Amino acid sequence: MQRAFWTTAELLAHGRSARWIADQVRAAHLIPVRKGHYHLPGAPEEVVRAVRVGGLATGAAGAAALGLWTPSDGRLAVAVPATASRLRDPDDPRRPLTSAAVQVHWTSERMPQATLLDRIAPVLLVLEHLFLTFPPARALTAVDSALHERRIRPADLALLGRRLPAQIAAVLALADGRAESGLETLARVLLQLAGFRVTPQVDIPGVGRVDLVVEGRLIVELDGQLWHAGRFEEDRARDAAAARLGYRTLRFTYRQVMDEWPMVFAAITRALAS
Question: In the prediction, which pLDDT does 32 show?
């Protein structure tokens, strides 16, 4: 069995017996999630929790399970059929759902078979629920990631836009699959919404590829901790090469962009004014 999630009915339809299921559970080859639902060892924990509630992983949980860069607010997002009942606690199926840490998205959308196999909502539904949960600029980080990872095509943006309120859908015009991290997307979009001209992933001769160029003259590098660890000397050499070509470079960390954006924005605007 390659798929990670099964129901009793699905196993019986595949020729397994009730005794075989019980034997697999005793051997921990099948792990009960809630009544009539099982998962194999190694299944994504947040998806398991969504199934335990009674639905599919969506929003930030679904995006993460799909391998997309995504924001998080600590809540578990679950897509639940409009006809569902008896929702359960994500960590204890004996208890009814009461947790404020679970965000339920009721949906009447018909789920394709492939989605039911991995218990993750379809990618457009996942992205729709992200926009209904997070500020548009943060939700767009997952859209850029989906484009970059080819989970969606540029043509799918129009389909996604029709699923969203008009004022949110307008932000989709800023989606750009060239972005290599959600941090880059967030900084770029916030600057673009403020009226600045921003180009991502620019190759500058003698410098290399830089994250963002703002107004054609300011380089903004976003130093994710893992990517830039151990590159202190190389990064400073690149900054010096950029300065010789007339660029100024500002560097910001993940924490600064995510948690201290007013400071980052003030530094960028001051640099552009000088």
Answer: 97
How do the domains of the chain map onto residue ranges?
A: 44-174, 184-273
In which residue ranges of the chain is pLDDT below 70? 1, 224-230
Query: How far is 13 from 7, CA to CA, in rounded Å?
Result: 10
Q: Are 249 and 219 spatial neighbours (Cβ–Cβ below 8 Å)? A: yes
Whole-angstrom CA distances from 100 to 10, 76, 90, 104 are 32, 9, 11, 10
- At 230 the pLDDT is 56
CA 45 – CA 227 distance, rounded (Å): 26
The CATH superfamily holding the domain 184-273 is VSR Endonuclease (3.40.960.10)
- Tell whether pTM > 0.70: yes
- Give the Cβ contact number of residue 93 at 10 Å: 18
What are the Cα distances from residue 4, in Å, to 38, 100, 116, 217? 8, 27, 11, 50
